[in-house]
Amino acid sequence: MSLYLGIDFGTSGARAVVIDADGTSQVEAQCSFEAVSGKQAVRRTPTAVAWEKALFSLLEKIPGELREIKAIAINGTSSTVLLCDDAGKPLDEPILYNDARGEAVLDQVKAIAPPNHPVISATSSLAKLLWWQEISPHLPYKSGEKRIGYFLHQADWLSFLLHGRLGISDYHNALKLGYDVENLRYPDWLQQQAFSPLLPQVLPPGTPVGEVTKEISDRFRLPQDCIVCTGTTDSIAAFMASGAKTPGEAVTSLGSTLVLKLLSQTRVDDPEFGIYSHRLGDLWLVGGASNTGGAVLRHFFTDAELERLSNQIDVQKESRLDYYPLLGKGDRFPINDPNLPPRLEPRPDNPVEFLHGLLESIARIEARGYQLLQQLGATPLNRVYTAGGGAKNTTWTAIRRHHLGVETLQSVHTEAAYGTALLALKGLQ
């Protein structure tokens, strides 16, 4: 039986899924960074060390009879990066996806990048590289000197631990580094920079890179000819797992926030609304994210209350309450206003009415988001898959279906690791 392994690295831990050639899941495993580092030591353990321990722990958890794996792919959080030396040893603590220290060099990013480029963000990979260049003593390359190190994304470095080749990335992770995903090359404005020798080689996601090293093969009893492929980001892996495949299909992630991704024949980029497109083969994955979502619901209700009260909502009757549910001021999409105030009044005494108003209002924001993507040129919406915790709420699904006006389904698979396993499978086809 041909088997394929996908590994998903998140903010607190990692998951693995092994599938067969038909896409049937054979085994799943998970590991928290706290579990591999120890509860007391987790804050003192270097981040990259915790990643490595989690990766190896997942490999050990795969049953021996399911280790005849033909290909492996790994996803990581977007714009989580690190510097390492020529041996692959980290030179500094990695900078995580949500770390905004790049704010200190944002003017420099704006000076070298074209207007409205996705890299113009305090959390972009490029901003973090420039921060290391200007602020940190750990940058392993300076103008006029020989390359003595590498700048890598989380998935790049973890893949290196398996295949042993440094300096290779994929164009999903490299988008916020400045890679031109339309022409599949680094743009001239980026190649002209003094730090350009640090930039990784960029390949399409799922491209075979090399076999696992002999050390990895022996230690984890993996076939010597097991291929490691280039990876992707966690959100794109989740999209791939959903079942969405054709233009017009979309995935809404109802987690702490509200994230929309629409598969489109045309590319749409509009930094004014935080909208940018990832390349997905010959198509484009157009997306935006709002600060509304499940975190607001959990601020007012427990999970048990959400389930009990949702069952009492009459979905045939639309709520007249018009909220903009936020925990604090500011939103990015579909309204981009850092000073946008939460709107949570009036609040009725009946908690069922209040929850109904919240669910209805978030559904309106979701519909408005998809309308905006289409107004800007994306392929018309025809179906929405739902991922995240909110996907289990059937009342919310019925409300959303009414506002979206298209078929609404639960994602076929909800684990990002499953989507990454599909990437490994397709990499060998």
How does this model look, in words?
The chain has 13 helices and 17 strands. With 429 residues, the protein is α/β, with parallel strands linked by helices. The strands form four sheets. Strands 1, 2, 3, 4, 9, 10 and 11 form a seven-stranded mixed β-sheet that branches. Strands 14-15-13-12-16-17 form a six-stranded mixed β-sheet, sandwiched between helices. The mean pLDDT is 92.
Main features:
alpha/beta; seven-stranded mixed β-sheet; 429 residues; single chain; six-stranded mixed β-sheet; globular
Short description:
The chain is an alpha/beta fold.
Layout: helices, strands, pairs:
Elements: E1 3-9, E2 13-20, E3 25-32, H1 33-37, H2 47-61, E4 69-76, E5 81-85, H3 106-112, H4 125-135, E6 149-153, H5 154-163, E7 168-170, H6 188-191, E8 201-203, E9 208-211, H7 214-220, E10 227-229, E11 232-233, H8 234-242, E12 249-254, E13 258-264, E14 276-280, E15 283-290, H9 294-300, H10 303-310, H11 351-375, E16 383-387, H12 394-404, E17 407-410, H13 416-427
Parallel strand pairs: 1-4, 4-10, 4-11, 7-8, 12-16, 16-17
Antiparallel strand pairs: 1-2, 2-3, 5-6, 9-10, 12-13, 13-15, 14-15
Helix pairs in contact: 8-13, 11-12
